[in-house]
UniProtKB/TrEMBL annotation:
Top-rank lineage group of the source organism: Bacteria
Protein name as catalogued: Transposase (putative) YhgA-like domain-containing protein
Organism: Streptomyces pimonensis
């Protein structure tokens, strides 16, 4: 079954084809930005009953010529994949008569190191086909933790967060991205909704996904998309208290707010999602847990 995080790692290139030229600079390969880009059918099935589908397939037209970009999202090594990738590229070249390029996006370092090798297909004495994927892994994209930098290239920031989703830097990237999205104009509502959905998909089932849902559930008055309303509902739904408590503690850790053992137990033991949501909102700007626990209209900790 294809996971949602798998989808995000290649769909971001459908949303922003020019991202390919920007990210490959980190791989030491200079592709010109596309003058235009058009989606092609990802169905590479032959007439016989054998179905093969590449994750994303784009025709990229640049001032330096055209090529077909195949983007594959790969989370772990697979001995069967090189043969499939070679088939994809050969079939695409035969079908469109345009040079193909394979980009493999890996959120896992082990998978990235495996995919980055040169695959020789054929007998040892004379390999007839050599497969050389471009591979984008966690070490190939910078950590974008500045809201200004995130605002300059939101798709790149989404990809950075997806590739670093299991690392401590994920929180800083997500906070920067949330602020960048909030700065979008009302005319960008649909685009913001798409970016939010892609980011949630890209985080998969990692702890960073809980932080992202909370960030999106807080102060989303700058747009009223269906996605935003769904995120609010999820953040307040009964039974999410444990996840909200963990996200709150992660946020406090990221902001370097001192949390005593007593405070930690209070947060972890709170079973009211509405109270946790209020504390999370306050934690975005609070400098102490006293500010977070203060009763409405007063100071100090609540009873």
């Amino acid at each position: 079954m294809v996971s949602s995080s798998h989808e995000a790692l290649h769909r971001i290139f459908q949303q922003e084809p020019g991202l390919f030229a920007r990210v490959t600079r980190n791989l030491g390969v200079a592709f010109p930005p596309p003058v235009s880009a058009s989606e092609l059918s990802t169905d590479l099935t032959e007439t016989r009953p054998l179905e093969r589908r590449v994750d994303t397939l784009l025709r990229m037209d640049t001032e330096d010529g055209s090529f077909v970009l195949a983007v594959e999202s790969q989370s772990k090594p697979s001995r069967h994949k090189p043969a499939s990738w070679a088939y994809y590229l050969s079939h695409v070249y035969a079908k469109y008569r345009v040079p193909p390029v394979l980009l493999v996006v890996c959120p896992d370092r082990k998978a990235a190191a495996w995919a980055a090798q040169q695959f020789d297909i054929g007998p040892r004495q004379w390999p007839s086909l050599t497969l050389r994927p471009l591979v984008l892994g966690p070490d190939d994209l910078p950590v974008i933790d500045s809201p200004d930098e995130a605002a300059r290239d939101i798709p790149l920031t989404i990809l950075s967060a997806a590739l670093h989703r299991c690392e401590p830097e994920a929180d800083a990237i997500l906070n920067a991205l949330a602020k960048a999205l909030k700065g979008l104009s009302a005319d960008d509502e649909n685009t913001a909704g798409t970016f939010i959905e892609l980011m949630e998909q890209g985080l998969g089932m990692t702890p960073a996904a809980d932080l992202w849902r909370h960030l999106m559930a807080v102060d989303l008055s700058f747009f009223q998309s269906q996605t935003a309303q769904q995120l609010r509902a999820e953040g307040r739904a009964e039974g999410r208290a444990e996840g909200e408590a963990k996200a709150l503690l992660r946020l406090l850790g990221h902001r370097s707010v001192e949390v005593s053992e007593e405070d930690r137990e209070r947060i972890a033991g709170c079973g009211d999602p509405d109270v946790l949501d209020l504390w999370f909102t306050r934690a975005l700007t609070a400098t102490s847990t006293a500010e977070i626990f203060a009763p409405a209209g007063g100071a100090g900790t609540a009873d």
